[in-house]
Amino acid sequence: MALSTRTNTKTIGPSALTRDDVAARVDRCDWPAIESELDAFGCAAIPALIDPASCDALIALYAQDNLFRARIDMHRHGFGRGEYKYFAYPLPDVVGQLRDALYPHLASVANRWHAAMGIESNYPQRHVDYLARCHRAGQRRPTPLLLRYETGDFNCLHQDLYGAHVFPLQVAVLLSDLGNDFTGGEFVMTEQRPRMQSRAEVVPLRKGDAVAFAVSQRPVQGARGVYRVNLRHGVSRLRSGRRHTLGIIFHDAA
Q1: CA angle, 193 then 211 then 169, to 5°
Q2: What is the number of H-type helices and E-type strands within the chain?
Q3: From CA 104, how far away is CA 129, in angstroms rounded?
Q4: In the 8-state DSSP scheme, what is residue 237?
Q5: What local confidence, expressed as pLDDT, does residue 8 receive?
Q6: pTM assigned to the model
């Protein structure tokens, strides 16, 4: 039986966005520009996805262990330095609402990318339907997470693959204020094309901004047709302060 994905039983305080607020903010994003950036570079900034008060409310959740299913020490597992926590179901309202509202916009990109790469897949329009597919395959553990970095911490380049069903795009939202809360800690993505040197991409973000990016592969048009390139993402070393991020992964884990 699939786990419940209800998001209406946990709120993040009086400053939280409502479901209508979240949907409206997501729909107001410049999706043609975002899709163009994703197609060209495999990642795209989404400015002011959530407001500063909701960023602060999300950061405050990090101390509430009852909201999470697991805590990961990056150094212990060789992932870098820092830590993160996976939310448990039911997700806090704003987290589940962002996940549901972002998914349809990215599903159209995912379907187009997979068609170009010759991968047979059809991502449904509603996130709840895609999660049902994951849960039928035994991928029932929620994957949205909060990450915390202190001075000197970093996240090694990696791919977030948790089972046979992998949604090919994900989103990270910067919750802290660059320059006031921390310095350094840039979002970094690398792309490896066949028989070529790796290309690095750094996406500058401010508090409340998000970045959408490829989980592992994207299509690239070459002289002889479309080919696949592999991508990895991470976070550069934090020079000072503390940095929090909300990670939104659309497939659940086995």
Answers
A1: 60
A2: 6, 14
A3: 11
A4: P
A5: 39
A6: 0.91
